[in-house]
Amino acid sequence: MRSACTSVWGLAAVGRFNLHGGWALRPTDYGELLVIAGVAGVLFLLVALAHRRADAPARADSRRLLLLLLLLGVFGVAFDLIHSMAGAGTPAALAALVEDGGEMVMMSLIAAYCFEVCCRVYEGGRDTAREGNSPASAASV
Predict the structure, then answer these.
(1) 62, 27, 26, 25: which is closest to 46 by C-alpha?
(2) Is 2 helix (H, G, I), strand (E, B) or coil?
(3) Would you call 87 helix, strand, or coil by DSSP?
(4) What is the C-alpha separation between 27 and 7, in angstroms, rounded?
(5) pTM value?
(6) What is the pLDDT of residue 19?
(7) How far is Cα 76 from Cα 25, in angstroms, rounded to an integer?
(8) pLDDT tens per residue across span 103-122
(9) Residue 11 to residue 127: CA distance in whole angstroms
(10) Whole-number Cα distances in Å, 109 to 21, 112, 113, 133, 139
């Protein structure tokens, strides 16, 4: 969660909304949470709109992808806040390990799932069969 963008916009949110620290979190942590919530809200709105227009197999894919994105958020946001609250020493190092490791594993799973969906859809899956774009139909032309 500690990117330059979220830090800058989080700091702006602190000044704009007069945020205060609490529960072992700094005001900038709350500002970053607001920024992440706004970005995630726009992302989920776009996914929801695409989900409504999709066919049943694509909806199943988007539900799985949404679950993976939520798990990424758990590691990227929730464990980042736990890491911020942990302070220094062994608890902070353990929280950082779970946060960073969880983010890397989840991003790897998301990339692998997106690759699998693309291979399935564009290599004889639902789109090629439905639209007649298979290699066999192209050869017969």
Answers:
(1) 62
(2) coil
(3) coil
(4) 11
(5) 0.66
(6) 65
(7) 16
(8) 899 999 999 999 999 898 88
(9) 45
(10) 34, 5, 6, 29, 35
